[in-house]
Structure formats: structure tokens, C-alpha cells
Fold these 2 entries.
Entry 1:
Amino acid sequence: MAESKLDLLQGTLDLMVLQTLAAMGSLHGYGIARRIEQVSADNVLLNQGTVYASLVRSHQRGWISAEWGISSNNRKAKFYSITKKGRKHLSEDAAYWQRLSSVIGRVLAMQEEGGDQ
Amino acid sequence: MIDRLRQFFYRLRSLFHRAQLDHELNAELAAHLELAIEENLQRGMPAEEARRYALIRFGGTEQVKQQHREARGLPALDILLQDLRYAVRGLFKNAGFTTAAVLTLALGIAVNATMFSLVSAFLLRRPPGRDPEHVVVVSSVNPNKVFHADAFPVSAPNYFAWREANHVFADMAADEYRTVNLTSQDQPVALPSAAVSANYFSVLSVTPQLGRTFEAGEDQPGQERVVILSYELWERHFGSDASLIGRTILLNRENYTVIGVMPASFRLLGFTPQLWTPLVLTATDQTAAAHKDRSLYLFARLKHDATLEQARAELVTLARRAEKRFPETEKGWGAGVRTLPDFLIYDFEIRSALAVMMTTVGFVLMIACFNVAGLLLARAAGRRKELAIRIALGAGRLRIIRQLLTEGLVIAFLGGSMGLLLAYWGINFVRANMTFNEAISSVPLSLDWNVFLFALGVSLFSAVLCGLAPALKSSRTDINTNLKDESRAASAGRSHRRLRAVLVTGEIAVALFLLIGTGLLIRGIFLVEHQNLGFQADRLLTASVSLDSSRYKDASQQALFVGDVIPRLQHIPGAEAVAITSNLPAAGARGVTLRIKGKPDLPTNQGLSALDVVVTVDYFRAAGVPLLRGRTFTEMDNTAAPRVILVNQEFVHRHLQDQEPLGKQIGLDVGGATAEWSEIVGVVGNVKAYSEDTRDDPEVYEPYAQRPVPSFFIMVRVSSDPNSLASGLRNAVAQTDAELPLARVMSMPALIERQKGGNPFFTRMLGSFAILALILAAIGIYGLIAYSVSQRTHEIGIRVALGAKSPDVVRMVLWEGMKMTTIGAAIGLVLALPLPKIFDAIFYGLHIREPRLFFIVPIAILLVAMLATYIPARRVSTIEPMIALRHN
């Protein structure tokens, strides 16, 4: 039985999408989904379709902009890119996640020590 | 925050660009799949496999679209719109049902909105001026039982004392209502006017349309010849001439300079005069005797930090101080404070009439709602299978309730809009019919925001009222029994029947209560209109005269005028008897307190009182008031002779305990004058104090020669049509004084008709509401019973098939209907029992006892209900059993 995939925590998908756009520049939905899959090395349980709900949310909040364009293999696709506001939000959010994960890491470490004794 | 707002706007926008957004999404998703397939193909997958793999990685397309829609839009609003679309579609399909429900509600809402326009115009409109909530009216509280005893005018000495001593008012103004004679080129006219202290307009904080208001000092003797006109007078009498400011007009034969015109919006209901002059108060108004002359209305502005309660407490203290210092005149008298709006409405006596009207139309609406609820219930029963399917497919209970309530909402809003349309006509109709009273008809009625919001609220309320019960009921639908095709229950379920029974009984109870209530009121008004007033009103011509103080300075000059004009009036061809009276019969009179010689003085608040009328010799012959004992006045009863007085029967009964009245001495406390003893020389019949009042009050009559008054009425009994003598009467008065105006020259019947005011109109309105309620109730009862019978068609078919005869079936159905009707009627009857007492309390002088109504109305209701039950019962009993059994 393969190791079960990670369920996405609320709000983490938005962060991943923003980070992907910040790193890669302008991308279409498929590109974003593929990139997240590659980076997470298929550790994340992600239906590619779910990025679209995240994209419309971020777009409404003004974090990303969207326009129709032509893909590398000459197909019409909607391209998204991160806005200034989106970068600001990303840095705030990233800082939050880093703090949270370091705290969680410390807490778990403490539990392991306790378990040894 | 701004982000949230921005997001909300996007979401709202997405509601209206649904198709376009969906189209874009489809294109985007299609591109996604193509990109994925292409990549898979490049990796060397076969075409079929590449496509399958791409779709798997993508997840369910429909779910993704749904997620997308929910993320971009407003799901709650989406559901509402969906429900609305569904409701409208459903209602369109059932045009008959929809028309019936909407029309019923529209009628109910229309009568409510129409009546509410009166409430809005009289009770909700703010008086003019800045901050009218801070303006209060200070009144005396009369210890005697007189009309509006707690809103009595104040004496000048008290005005001065209270203005100086209080700590709660920023300023206080006084106002006295008078009649002045305006003389211009054509005829002299008598106008209602107000003499006000110089600060009156600043206390009310109103500014003139033209010119200025009074300045300090203009209420001093010698400075007071200035006048401010009402907009109406300026427009009607002076043709809106702006150059009038600074010119002089002739008031009471004296020159007054016009200094201003008030705007049309400056109206104080019944306290709106045509012009304002300064109120001059001198040293004589400060004497102890002046305490008895209570004629001032005090308007004051509260200090910013003062409350109404503080003002009340302060005035109570001040009134007590006055009582201590002037026990002779102030004993028992108190003081009260009301806000200006409150005072105006209180004085207008319109609150109780409006309350009754609003309650009536409220009940009409309730019946309408019962009907619509019944209709919705019937419809919901027909949709049982549809609802069961929806529940089986996963619709939650809340979702079903929401859907059905939305339907009720759509009906209520259709009804509400149509009701508003009807109310528009209704308000125009009421306005056209409210011409009986100048003060009332001058208040503009309109479909204003208040009315609109009220109609909206009423519509929402009725939506919930009619929609909730059926919605709750239907949401409990049992899927299993309803989905099975053969689930034709022999009869409707218990809870369903109970709800229907509640609706029918409720409707009957409300209708009965309403019919008895309106019946009582209509009967009461009828009795008042057809009562014996105690005098002969027909063939009497009347006119009102106010002698101005510039030519008629004292009592002897007033008596001279009367002595001169009476013979001239008697010479008019067709005049049978001529009299002068301080008050016309059945048209109100002033009350006095009195003492009877040889009887101990009672505490002031239990003192004896009577109506006091001053009349000339021929009054009783002219009015047709019968002399019961003793004699009436003669020419001998003049200033040189001992004072004499006549009393009415009620006086003998109440104040003399039916003892021998002739020869008894009584003393009247007439304002200012020292009380003198007068001997009772005769007893006359009772005359109603007001034509719209059924009570008899003790009354005394004094001879004009012994107590002349400057304002009085001329009364002429004529042998033919009174109106034909009007010009003769005018000429006769003009011969005595050409500049003296006559006001209200009209026949006595016309005057009484005018005094009855809105009563006939009020009766007609109440009557039409009652009939509307009865018709609605009959339709509702018929609808509910017919529906319940049709639900039982199957059961009845079985009964007939098993041998039940047609009359048995009719009897059974009738019995069920009658059971509900009887219970409803009993509830309504019990509710209606205290009504006569309640009406006694709210309608001054209307004493209604009509036990017959308590039999007639229930019987009428029972008959209507029986008919409403019989028709469907008859129809179902004649049905072929085979058809009945197949009935779904």
C-alpha cells in the first residue's frame, strides 16, 4: 500500500499558487497545477481542477491578474501573473506559515524527547 | 476591509454575468485538458490512455465547475434567485391560484395602506420648526369634569409666574386664540387669529416666508399694530402680493402694518390661525382676579439638558406654589406638560378613531392571510409527490421551507405592489371625502415613504403569516407514503386536518369579532345621528358675530348693539322669532362652576358645574326648547332688576336632587366677575351639549341684558327655507353696523351636518370594511371546506359504495363544517363581549348597548358558513362512486 497523500490544509493551496506564480512568472492553470505536482513530488493530493477555485478567489482579491494568451504550443489559454498586492500578501502569508511550521516542528520535537524517557 | 468590499462586488457581478463567466470557464478547462492530453501524448501514451489519464488527474469536471461558481459568486443569493425563478414559474403555471391569492392579499394590504396614510399624515408628520421634540405645551389641569380637563388654557398671572420661576425652559411664549374682523374693499370677514407674545416664533423656531416676525417690544401697548399673515390668507385674500409687506390693513377697524407672511408649511393642526398679532398683557392681567381668566396656550422650548419629566415635575411644583398663594382661584388646579406633537394630536381627538380604523383593517388583513394560507396549504397538498421527490434527492428540510417561504414572499410582493396601486386610489378617495372639517382637510394625505414602508412591512408580515404554516407542514412530508403511487390515503392525515381546522375556526372567530365591533360602532353613530337633540333644528338660520373692542368697548355698548339689531331682524319678512345666544344649541357651550345657596361648599375638584349659555328673551321660542316650569325671561329682566336664571331638567335632577327648583339661589363663578346670587325662575327641557354626544349635562341660561357678551350667535326661526333669508339677515346687521362681518351664515341643520363631521363617512368606511371582511371570510371558509371535501372524495366514494346515502354524506360534511364554525363563533363571541365597554372608554359620549347584535352576527356567520359547506358537500354526494374511487 502506497503512503497516503497529504490532504491540503485550508488556505495552503492559495499560498502554493501564489508562490508558483511569484517564482515562475506568467502561467496558465495547467502549468500551475503541474508545477505544484512536480515540486511536491506527488506528495500532495491535488485534483488539478481545484486550482481554478483558488485562482478565482485570488483574482477577486486582486492578488493575481489574468489575461488570455497563446501557450508555447500555440494554444489559446488564460495566463495568470502575480500582482504587487499579491506579492505583499504572499510575503505575509509565507512568514506566517514558516513561523507556524517551526513552532509545530519544535512542539513535535519536544514530544519525541518526552517519549524517550 | 476594502479587499472584502472589492471581493463582494466581484461576487455580486458574477451573478449577472453568469453565462459569460461560465463560457470563459469552459474554455479555460477545455484548454487545460488539451494541454494535459498533449503532454501525455508526448510522453508516449496512446491517445485513449492520454485522455483518460488527463481526466483522472483533473478530477470531476462538474465538481470543479461547481467549486468555481461557489468561489466566485454568492451561494446564498444564488439559492434565493433559484427559488425565486422556480416560484415565479410555478405561480405562472397556476394562474387561477395565483390570481386568487394575489387579489386577496392586495385587498387586505390596500385597505391597510390607505388607513395608514391617515396615521402617517396625522401622527407621524413632524410639526414645523427646528427640533420640534424640544417644544412643549404647558397647560392647566382643570379639577372639574370638563372636556379635555388636563389640556386647559393657562391664566396670564400664571404665565408670568411660571415663565420667571422655572429652570427647565430656555424660553416660553403665550398664545391666545381670537376672532378678528378684517375689513377690505368688499365684505368684512371674520378670521381665526392668534395673539402671540413677541417671542412666539422664535420659541417654535420658524422663519417667515416674507418679511420678519415680531420683535421684542412689539407686544407692549402702543407698539402692537403689526400683523403677520398666514400663507393661505396672503394667497387667497391678497393675491400673493409681495408688496403687501409694510402696507396697512384694517383689523377690528384699526390700522395694522403687515410685517411678514409665514410659509405654507407652518401649520399646527387645529391651532392654525389665519393671522398673528402681538399679545399685549398689562398690569390688569397680573391681578389676583385675572387668575380666573384662563385663555392662554403656553409654548415653551426645553433647555438642552432638560427632559420632559423634569419639566413635568417642575410645573407640578409651580402649580402647587400658585395654589398656596391664591387658594381662592387656584385650589385644585394643576399644570401639565406635553410635547407639541402630542398636544396637537391629543387636542385633535383623532388617535382613538385611527386606532379603531387600523385595528379593523388589521383584522381584514388577517382574514386575507388566513385565506391565502388556506390556498397555499391546498396547493402544497397537491404537490406532495413533487416535494417527496425533492426530499428523496437530498433536499434538506430547511431548503424546502425556504423554497415554500420564497413562494409566499413572491405572492405577498405581487399582492403588496397591487395593494399599493389600489391604495393610491383609496387615498385619493379618502382625501376627496374628508372635506367636512377645515383643520382635517387641510392636512395633506399622500402615499408617502411611511405608507410605502408600512405596505412593505405588511407584505413581508403576510408572507410569513401565510407561508409559514404550510411550509412547516409540507417539509415534514413522509417520503415513503407519498412516493408510492398507490399511496392514496383514504383521508388526509391528522396534522393536516388540524391545521385546516385551526384556519377555519380562526377565520370565523376574527370575522365575527370584526362584524360585531363594526356593527356596534355603526349602530352607535346611527343612534347619535338620529337622537332627539331637545330643540327644533329645522327652519333655523344662524350667524356668528364678534363685536370688536374698538367700537364696543364695554358691556353697555354690546347690549346697545343687541337692542338695536333684534327689532331690525324681526322685520325681515318670514322671520318668526329672533334671538341672540352665546352658544347655539347642540354646538358646545362653556362650562362654569357654581354654588347653591344654603348648601355647603364642596372641595373644588368635586364642585358643581354646568354649561352656561347667555340668551335673549325669545331664545326658547326661537329654538323650540320647551318650558317645563316657571317662566322664561322677559324684557323686565334687565340690569336694574334682580338677577334671574333658568336651569334645565338635568340640573334639577343632578344638582338639586329633584327638589323644588323655583326660588333657589345659585351663584356662577364666571371668569373675573364677583359671584352674584341669581334666582331660578324656570326649568326648561334638556338640550344635548353636542349633536354628536348622547349625554345630557346640567345647563343654566342667563339673560343677555344681565350678562352681555361680545361674541354670540344670531338665531332666526323662519317660516320657509332658512337659506332664503340669509341676505335679509346680512342687510339687517349692516343697517346697525356696516363694517361688522358675519361669519358662518348657515341653517342649523347644515351646521349640525358639518359638526357631525366625518361620522357618516366614518360609518360608510367601517361598513365597507365589515362587508369586505365578511366576503373574504366567506370565500375563505368555502375554499377551505371545498378543498377538504375534495381531499375526502376517495373516502366518500368508499362510503357511497358501501351503501351510504347522499343525504348521509351531506350531513356528515355539513357536521364537520358546523363543528369548526361553532367553535370559531364561540371564540369570536367571547372576544367581542367586552367591546361595548372598550368603546365607551375611547369614544367620549358614545354610549352603545346593542345586545341584538350578539345574536344576529353569529347567526349570519353560521348561515354563511353553512352555505359555504353545503355547496361542496352537495357536489361530492352526487358523484358516482366509481369516479370517486378513481379520484387521485
Note: Chain A has a mean pLDDT of 81.
Entry 2:
Amino acid sequence: MLPGHLRSLAGVSGEVRLDVAGPLTLGVLVDALEAGFPALRGTLRDRVTGRRRAFVRFYACERDLSNEPPDAPLPEPVAAAIAAGREPLLVIGAMAGG
Amino acid sequence: MTQVRVLAGTRKGAFVLTSDGTRRKWSVSGPHMAGWEIYHLKGSPANPDRVYASQNTGWFGQLTQRSDDGGLTWQPAGNDFTYAGGDPGTHLWYDGTPRPWEFKRIWHLEPSLTDPDTVYAGAEDAALFRSTDGASTWTELTGLRQHSTGPQWQPGAGGLCVHTIILQEPRMYVAISAAGTFRSDDNGETWQPVNRGLVSAGIPDTDAEVGHCVHHVEAHPSRPDTLFMQKHWDVMRSDDGGLSWTEVSGNLPTDFGFPIGVHAHEPETVYVVPITSDELHYPPDGRLRVYRSRSGGHEWEPLTNGLPQQDCYVNVYRDAMAVDTLDECGIYFGTTGGQVYVSPDSGDTWEPIVRDLPAVLSVEVQVLP
């Protein structure tokens, strides 16, 4: 699930479904998202460093996954819930600014 | 029938304002890219319906967008502004310590005079990029950032940004806060600082090549060697392509300000919006006055007819003034209070086109046949 600004940018409404293979990591999910929606490249992570943007957060199953290493498999049972489509990965624009 | 199109970038989106040649009745389209900061949008001189926009937020970074219908619909374009050459090195931070170059945003987009697919982008931290495929991909013109003075450049209060790009192909000028003005005579491959004659408090060396906080520079197409500059303090002009500058602030009530404009048909008629000071970014005495010089500086007259003359405390940013090319030249500017004003008679009278937009960051105008 993307925040409103990014749904507009990607031209989607509601949830985005991604096809991914192998163990789920944040890196795999963002790679798949950017491949499906090239307009989103650079919006979640810095183009040069690859680091998550400071005001972008990732949540699933009521857990904050933002600081999970991009290449580390997501913890179970979160990964299984996302992979099965039972729970969305929520991309949140942090509450900041005015 | 002649149509006038004003492109306004604001803190919360882009707006397209259109009128016929009388410039009395306006239609408003927007917000486009709602909720995003639109630092600048500008149309191609070679194809006015091709418009480029710089779109940014602190959350999701820098994007560019491209329109092929004059700004009514938009398509995301490229946003890979990677500095060329691996390790970009350092410039100076506010405290004088070295700081690695880091891309932050695009302040200004300047489409080519002849090719709708070619557009230049001025970046913070200071760098110049060019696209030749309609903003899909960007390549840095490294000669600017890698100039031998680059490690000495320091940011202005708004950042270390390329905010002005003047194309006189093959000559180009850029202005950087707070490095100064630079000129290229080979389409941006190599650059020289052109700041001699600028005097800035805090720079005791009056021969310093760089370090001046230039706010904006304009040139009239018929006189490419004549440049007008609004510096942090001081209004300046050069008649030798920037090689030397003289102050023309004259009788202005204050010579601090951000934008400067040149009349489309009178290359010695210049417009500024004096602002109280670098600490007080609003008009003196709460009176919004554009000042016009018909003599290329020195002698200035206040233009107030139609502008608020009490309790007005807005600012006018550096890219938020533009002129049109109709026979009776129109002057436009936008404010941090969300007003966009038009004068259809070279500044004699003013009317608000809109009063309640988000803070206006940039204003450009196109005349369509």
C-alpha cells in the first residue's frame, strides 16, 4: 500500500500487487515495485546511496520494518503474511512538516 | 487569437493561468502535481506546449515531469541526477569545513531555445545537468561543479544551488548561491567565474573570484553582453558579458531583493522588487512596490497602482518574475502570500490574477499565437 502522493505518481489506486520470487526482503520488494512502476524510482530510497529516505517508513503486521537491512529476509510470520497476500506492506510517509 | 499562459510553481503544486492578449480575464487550471513543491516549470521556446516541471518533497525526493499539452496533463520523467565521475569531492559547509557534494533538488529548468527535447537543470548542491531526450535521462556537465574554485563554494541560506541559467547558445551563464556568476562560451563544457566588481559584506577581498550571493541574473535577447543582477544586496549591471560589474542601485529604497526582470522590448527598462533586508524578507513599510528603471539602473520609480500599499508582508522569490512579449509588455510576479500579479502595461497598473494560491515559488509566461 503506497501513500497518496506515490499512488498518484504511479497512476494506481488501492493496493499494488507485486510478483516476487525467493525470500522476501525490503530490497526485493522495492526492486519489484520500481520495476513495475519506474516513476517511483528514487522516491523510496536515495538514487545514489540506496538508503531508505528518512521520512519513508515500512510497516506490516503492526510491526515497524523500516530499519530492517534491505538484504535481510523479513521476519516470520510477517514475510509469510505478505507473500500470501494476507497483509499488505505499508509504505508510509512519516508525519513531519506542515 | 493570441493567448497568454502563465506557469506558476507553488509550495503545493503547479498552476496554469491563461488569458487572451488583453490579460484582463483569466482561467485557472490546477493544482497539478497537487501537494508537491514545484520549484520551477518552464515551457520550451521551440514548442510551447512542451513544458518541464521540477517536483520535490522532503519525503520522496526529486522528480521531473513533462507535459505536451501546455501543462494540463503531465508524465513523470527522469530523476536520476547522479553526479558524474564517482567521488564528487567536497565544497565548504556554512562553518567553513569541507562537506561532500550531495544532490538535493532541482531549482531551475531551462529548455533549449531550439530543441524541445533539450533542457538544462540547475541543481542543489550546485551542478548543471542536461537532457537531450525530453528529461528522460540526465547527464551532468561536469565543467561547472569541477571548476577549480568548486571546493571553495559555500551555500547561501537557501542552499548551494544553481538557480539561474541563461542560454545564448553557445554562450551560457549560470548563477549560484553563494558562489556567484559563471560563464561558458562552449555550451557548458568549461566555465569561468564572472564576478569582478561585485562587493559583498563578509568578503573582505574585493578581487575574490567566488563567494558572492547572487540572487538572480537576467539578460535581454537583443543585448547578450548586458546582464542585470539582483545580488543579496545591490543591483548590478554588466555590459561586457559579466567580465565587470557596476552597481546601479541608485535611489532604490533598499537594494536587497530576489528577482530582476528586463522589459521585452526596451532593453534598458528593468524591474526589481525591493525587500527590507536580509533579516526582514518583506517589502519596506508593508507596501508592495515594484521599482522600474527606464535608464538601465540608477534612476528608479515605484510602481504601486493596484498593489497593496499597507499591511503587506509577502516576499517575491528569485524565479517568480517574468515578462511577456506582447507589444505592450506584460510584467508578472508571484508572492509568498499566493498572489500572482499582472501588469498588462509595462508596470503602470497591476491586478491580481489569483489571490490565494500556495506560496508562489516561480512564475513563467508564454505568448501563444
Note: The first strand of chain B starts at residue 3 and ends at 10.
